[in-house]
Design goal:
By secondary structure, this protein is mainly alpha-helical. Helices cover 43% and strands 5% of the residues. The chain has a two-stranded antiparallel ribbon. A hairpin with a 6-residue loop joins β1 and β2. The longest helix has 17 residues. The chain starts with a strand and ends in a 6-residue tail after the last helix. About 4% of the residues have low confidence.
């Protein structure tokens, strides 16, 4: 029994070992052909799929102040807008209009998946 160097990590291991105990690289035993293992690191990177449309969210919020946020999956945000915008309209028409525009812009912007 002799010590040989691992072709992968360079550590000395027994010549009768089936694989390197340090890195797991297969070793050629007596009477076995030399094995070379090539590892390919294939990393599939896919762009996130957008399952909502900013335009649809804005149009929904135009008609009913919370629908755009709920369409995006932001339920609590939508409920808050459903309460805040009508209160703004009850106070006066100007604050309600400003809040409604902010609601529409908020529905069309941002990524709900982050």
């Amino acid at each position: 029994m002799a010590l040989v160097k691992c072709a992968e990590c360079g550590k000395e291991i027994s010549s009768i070992a089936a694989s390197c105990p340090s890195c797991g690289h297969p070793m050629a035993g007596p009477g076995q052909p030399s094995i070379q293992v090539v590892q390919v690191n294939q990393q599939s990177v896919q762009a996130p799929v957008r399952r909502w449309s900013p335009g649809v969210a804005a149009i929904l919020s135009f008609f009913i102040p919370d629908l755009g946020q709920m369409y995006k999956g932001q339920i609590l945000n939508g409920v808050a807008w459903l309460i805040i915008v009508p209160v703004g309209y009850l106070m006066f028409i100007i604050p309600g209009s400003i809040l409604h525009i902010c609601c529409i812009i908020g529905a069309a912007m941002g990524n709900p998946y982050k």
